[in-house]
Design goal:
The complex is a heterodimer of chains A (415) and B (77). Chain A is of the alpha/beta class and 415 residues long. Chain A has 13 helices and 14 strands. In chain A, a hairpin with a 3-residue loop joins strand 13 and strand 14. Chain A is globular and about 60 Å long. Chain B is globular and about 30 Å long. The chains are: A alpha/beta (415), B mainly alpha (77). At the A-B interface, loops of A face helix 2 of B.
Chain lengths: 415, 77
């Protein structure tokens, strides 16, 4: 079977760093923090009162009627917002592809928790007759691809993947596979998440997974630093348009990068703790390298999972050192979660966009707040300032609870 | 405020349609393009606003603003 090449032709982003690709990228290269004290909630009694909230968000009513904006949970709206940016950039609406050959696979780790919480409250206080008829459609994780298909008429493959914080990385890998196999000509992929709410924060903070640095929110997400104390909740979406490379070239599309490798594996170790030696992550990076057919020395940049948890950052560092051997010391590895917080199911989508932007511009976004590097984290993490490196290949890692792993390799486009 | 105006205000807020374009003759399906889920949500809002219970089988007869106003008036007697 012929395996098709996969081109990236559109990207769109929204997160605490900004509401468009350019805003997010400029702020990332400036090393800004998108983390702040939460504004949308009264946080009295919460163990953690900060996060990477999207600010000043208003969805274009052309993408969703105003009456529906009250009904559909935010993760749906972020996907439509970033998706519109990516789709416009790609030009696929004028591509002439059959609607049945354009599919959508998004990653969403949790779905519509804010509306679950709201409806549960109504259920307890006012009874079952006050549970909204829009409750179920609003919160199911596959409604974001559903709403997008309805808006644009794309009738290809359509579903969501839920694999916790690896969701959108897995989605992107499966979407790329659809194109490699020739079943679809174009795919809208990546992911979306919006679960900064009391319920979720209580759940994560009772697991002791979250940073408690309430007094210094911008310094709280500090991967690889000795004083890191957990991850910071973020939200947003990173949406990516993929196309059959030859068809994209034939229609004169502007190609941003290529996806050349994808790996997925399990730790088979613990429900939430990473494998201490990063063995699951190692399998996954090796799979991605093998599929890509490149030498490991060709990889110049890794956008790490790097969540700023005490165990996770060490385990991933070990896995990278095992996968890349002597080349590990030449690699540049950054965790943009230091600036965006952890977008959970949307992390892989947004961070794949950081990889694509690094390949396009030659600039590597930094890991901020890296003041005293943990001796057990001994790679070059692009500390605090961006670096000009011009990598030819970039790898994104995303790992999730349940011990699930994903690695994706992107190639710089050279015309 | 008259009952009729209250109903129109509520429907206007729920559907984001200009109240000036809503009258007693306005049909939920034909003019406001509401589907069955929209109607369930709207009736919940009516129940909360007017402190009445509207059984599901009775909502099927409420096809216009005028039907709702007449129904609510009958309920209050």
């Amino acid at each position: 079977m012929k395996i098709n090449r996969v081109a990236v032709t559109g990207i769109g982003a929204i997160c605490g760093l900004g509401n468009s690709l350019n805003e997010v990228w400029e702020n990332a290269l400036a090393g800004k923090s998108g983390i702040s004290t939460l504004e949308r909630h009264k946080t009295e009694g919460w163990a953690v009162n900060f996060g990477g909230e999207v600010k000043n968000f208003k969805l274009n009513p052309e993408l969703m009627e105003l009456k529906d904006q009250d009904r559909f949970d935010l993760f749906n709206q972020y996907a439509l917002h970033a998706g519109d940016e990516a789709i416009k950039m790609s030009g696929i609406l004028d591509s002439g592809y059959e609607k049945s050959k354009i599919g959508i696979i998004f990653g969403t780790g949790l779905g519509g928790f804010p509306h679950i919480e709201m409806n549960h409250q109504a259920y307890l206080e006012k009874g079952p007759r006050r549970v909204s008829p829009f409750f179920i459609p609003s919160v199911i994780p596959n409604m974001a691809p559903g709403l997008m298909s309805i808006h644009y008429g794309f009738q290809g493959i359509n579903f969501s993947i839920a694999s916790a914080c690896a969701s959108s990385a897995h989605a992107l890998g499966v979407a790329a596979t659809e194109i490699m196999m020739g079943r679809q000509d174009a795919m809208i992929s990546g992911g979306t998440e919006a679960v900064i709410t009391g319920y979720t924060i209580a759940g994560f903070s009772n697991m002791k997974a979250l940073s408690r640095r309430n007094e210094e929110p911008t310094r709280a997400s500090r991967p690889y630093d000795v004083d890191r104390d957990g991850f910071v909740m973020g939200e947003g979406a990173g949406i990516i348009v993929l196309e059959n490379y030859d068809k994209a070239v034939a229609r004169g599309a502007k190609i941003l990068a290529e996806i050349v490798g994808f790996g997925a594996s399990a730790d088979a170790h613990h429900i939430t703790a990473p494998h201490p030696e990063g063995l699951g992550a190692l399998i996954c990076m090796n799979q991605a390298l093998e599929l890509s057919g490149i030498r490991k020395e060709d990889v110049g940049y890794i956008n790490a999972h790097g969540t700023s948890t005490p165990l996770g950052d060490i385990a991933e560092t070990q896995a990278i050192k095992k996968a890349f051997g002597d080349h590990a010391k030449n690699l540049r590895v950054s965790s943009t979660k230091s600036m965006t917080g952890h977008l959970l199911g949307a992390a892989g989508g947004l961070e794949s966009i950081f990889c694509i932007q690094a390949l396009r511009t030659g600039m590597l976004p930094p890991t901020i707040n890296l003041e005293n590097q943990d001796p057990q984290c001994d790679l070059d993490y692009v500390a605090n300032k961006p670096q000009k490196r011009d990598p030819q290949y970039a790898l994104n890692n995303s790992f999730g609870f349940g011990g699930t792993n994903s690695s994706t390799i992107f190639k710089k486009f050279i015309s | 405020m008259e009952l009729q105006d209250k109903v129109i205000k509520l429907v206007s807020e729920a559907t984001k349609m200009d109240a000036a374009n809503i009258s007693l003759n306005t049909s939920f399906v034909d003019d406001l393009n509401l589907d069955s889920l929209d109607m369930v949500e709207l009736m919940m809002k009516m129940e909360d606003e007017f402190g009445v219970e509207i059984p599901e089988d009775e909502t099927e007869n409420l096809k216009s603003i005028g039907d709702v106003v007449t129904y609510l008036k009958a309920k209050s007697h």
